[in-house]
Prior knowledge:
This protein is α/β, with parallel strands linked by helices. It has ten helices and eight strands.
Amino acid sequence: MTRAKRDMQENMKAVDMVIELRDCRIPESSRNPMIDQIIQNKPRLIVLSKKDKGEAAEIEKWIQHLSNETTTVIAMDLTKEPVIAALTSACQKIMQPKIDRMIRRGIRPRAIRAMVCGIPNVGKSTLINAVAKKKIAETADRPGVTRSLKWMKLNKNLELLDTPGILWPKFEDQKVGYHLAITGAIRDQILPLEDIVRYALNRLIAEYPDKLTARYDIELCEDPDEVIRRIGLKRNFIKSGSEVDLKRTREVFLNELRDDKLGSISWEKVNENQ
Ligand SMILES: Nc1nc2c(ncn2[C@@H]2O[C@H](COP(=O)(O)OP(=O)(O)OP(=O)(O)O)[C@@H](O)[C@H]2O)c(=O)[nH]1
Ligand SMILES: [Mg+2]
């Protein structure tokens, strides 16, 4: 078992529920399947982050698809939207049955305790910083199970563990790797640049030809290698001689894709995953 997993399992004992972050553009690829095992049957709030970067209609379908009795789903732009209000209301709704039970038994309900978790780059720090910045964060030390845990008190109803649980994505399916690379979750050369770009272009040629032509003003064809060559030619990325500098073209193209220069794209759609 990895250290991160062990830590999460320990911290799990101290929380009432889990806030799982996923990238709204790739809700399947940006989840770690181990999470179900770690959080067992604790109530869960899935926050689909980077709402501003995905397609509204697709995000709405994901919200419907992922919601069930123990899981509530919301989508957010964590950099702009009021995080505290959204989290408090969602977490309260999720925990209401338990709170009601406590009240019926004559127990005064305490604040809900939640842990934020997710794979790298989904917005864990952005969420926690947004909360901490508000200075409601009188971080209090309270003994956890084996060591002291730091909590951030958002208000009288909700406390967040100040360290998120980090999980790594799974790369069993190559498509997952491409999705993570395209959205910037992995930046290292884990996968060959050529393959990432080929995958992205195949998808764009088939599903978003207008976005490609609008950005690069080229004539499209079905061959992604030819399309990247045409993009390089258009941008005048020429090596000595008259050859197109394909490596540079691919790098620039992938950077532009990550920077949303082609617009909002939901790389995973609900139907494909059913
Ligand atoms: N546009 C947009 N950007 C976001 C959103 N949430 C996070 N980001 C950006 O995504 C990048 C990664 O966010 P982090 O909060 O650092 O992600 P993290 O989960 O803490 O990542 P690790 O620390 O690597 O595990 C940052 O550049 C954030 O500004 C969002 O909702 N919308
Ligand atoms: Mg972080």
